[in-house]
Write a structure and sequence with these properties.
Layout: E1 2-3, E2 6-11, H1 17-23, E3 29-33, H2 50-54, E4 61-67, H3 75-95, E5 99-103, H4 111-128, E6 134-137, H5 143-156, E7 162-165, H6 172-181, E8 188-191, H7 195-206, H8 212-232
Parallel strand pairs: 2-3, 3-4, 4-5, 5-6, 6-7, 7-8
Antiparallel strand pairs: 1-2
């Protein structure tokens, strides 16, 4: 995660336990996933009561939920997702944890359909009383969509901490282009991107085509280039 001169980490609860525990020693912003991977409707890891699960989480861990609604979900799937989102928000509020809701729209036919589904779910969350402290979405290329997002947040939750942007394994050059297209806005906090940085070096490292040192250097250099692109956007 990079933005506003701050650095944080997003980790998976299953494979990153040692990193999670070590992070408690530092003033890090930590986004910790709670959803079960690849499931629609949403399901959560841990106990049936989300609040009971979160009671064991340190206060500095932000509850990160990846929500992948389909553009053409059946009504019963939509209803279950709404119920689960309400459970999640109630659990996070009961324990005082911040909530980051990441929305990636599945099965869109066009970019316009994807944007419409994203906006529909963001509005529906607010109508349900679900107020994420952070949103995480794909960089928005269409200025009208961005204006609609800002207007929606301003209408329902002007105290929202802001928006982070994901990469979804997009190539570095394309991410730099998308960063440059984002309007100047205090709601645009930074990016939280993994696979665009580590996937290709990881593939080479696992088959012995890249050394430990080269893998680390490649990922570091990519991250730094993206950070410079983010911090240098809208500066002429």
């Amino acid at each position: 995660l990079e933005g506003q001169n701050d650095v944080g980490i997003l980790v998976d609860d299953t494979y990153g336990q040692s990193v999670l525990f070590e992070s408690n020693r530092y003033p890090f912003w930590v986004g910790r996933s709670i959803e079960k991977t690849g499931v629609n409707p949403l399901m959560f890891e841990g106990k049936a009561d989300v609040g009971s699960t979160l009671q064991a989480w340190p206060e500095n861990h932000v509850v990160k939920c990846l929500f992948r609604p389909g553009a053409k979900d059946a009504p019963e799937v939509v209803e279950e997702n709404e119920r689960q989102l309400c459970r999640l928000f109630s659990g996070a509020r009961s324990t005082g944890h911040d909530l980051l809701l990441e929305i990636i729209v599945d099965q869109p036919q066009t970019r316009e359909e994807q944007d419409a589904c994203l906006l529909r779910w963001m509005r529906r969350c607010y109508e349900l009383g679900v107020y994420p402290d952070y949103w995480k979405i794909l960089p928005v290329a269409d200025q009208g969509t961005w204006q609609a997002i800002e207007a929606l947040i301003g209408e329902y939750d002007p105290y929202c901490r802001g928006i982070l942007f994901l990469g979804l394994n997009v190539a570095e050059a394309e991410l730099v282009k998308r960063f440059a297209a984002l309007p100047e806005s205090p709601r645009a906090l930074g990016f939280a991107i993994g696979r665009s940085i580590f996937l290709e070096p990881a593939r080479k490292w696992f088959v012995g085509q890249m050394s430990d040192e080269d893998a680390v250097a490649t990922m570091r250099d990519c991250f730094l280039r993206l950070a410079r692109a983010w911090n240098g956007r809208n500066r002429g």
